[in-house]
Write a structure and sequence with these properties.
- There is one protein chain.
- This protein is α+β, with helices and mostly antiparallel strands.
- It is built from 3 helices and 7 strands, in the order H-H-E-E-E-E-E-E-E-H.
- The chain folds into 2 domains: about 40 residues; about 90 residues, PH-domain like (Roll), CATH 2.30.29.
- Strand 1 and strand 2 form a beta hairpin.
- Helix 1 runs antiparallel to helix 2.
- The chain binds zinc ion.
- Zinc ion binds next to loops.
């Protein structure tokens, strides 16, 4: 993803430097998109800390506090090809959040990685429920 961004950034710089009018605008737009891609792609993934879970994708970042998370579960068929898989968080209000920062193709290796991550997240959720004074919810929701 980062390599793709760098290639598009170089094409954009070339268009801005060498091409007339309209191509410069196209180059500027392509360059801005590429710069975002180059900056965000290496930061995509999941961050788990005392606050909760931060889900970073190329497009956006979502922070979900532990207090809002009711459960975790699988997310299948999440890509345009239908072959992508990841995990979801379900909030106490019933909102489902796909953790696209963990997404990968449905392979045995990905499935094993996601099962391990799910077990770790479930343990953190359970720990939070026992130690958080504002989470007086009995058991998993
Ligand atoms: Zn809490």
């Amino acid at each position: 993803m980062t390599v793709t961004g760098v290639v598009f950034l170089l094409v954009a710089i070339t268009e801005i430097a060498l091409e007339p009018g309209g191509a410069k605008v196209f180059g500027a737009v392509t360059g801005a998109f590429s710069a975002v891609l180059v900056y965000r792609a290496p930061r995509a993934g999941l961050v788990v800390d005392d606050f909760g879970i931060t889900n970073r994708t190329v497009e956006w970042t979502h922070r979900i506090p532990w207090c809002e998370i009711a459960s975790t579960g699988p997310a299948v068929g999440i890509s345009a090809s239908g072959l992508g898989t990841s995990l979801t968080l379900v909030t106490h209000e019933g909102r489902r959040i796909v953790l696209r920062g963990l997404a990968g193709y449905s392979t045995r290796r990905t499935t094993a990685r996601l099962q391990k991550t799910k077990a770790q997240l479930d343990a953190r959720i359970a720990d939070h429920r026992t130690s958080c004074p504002t989470c007086a919810r009995p058991g998993p929701a």
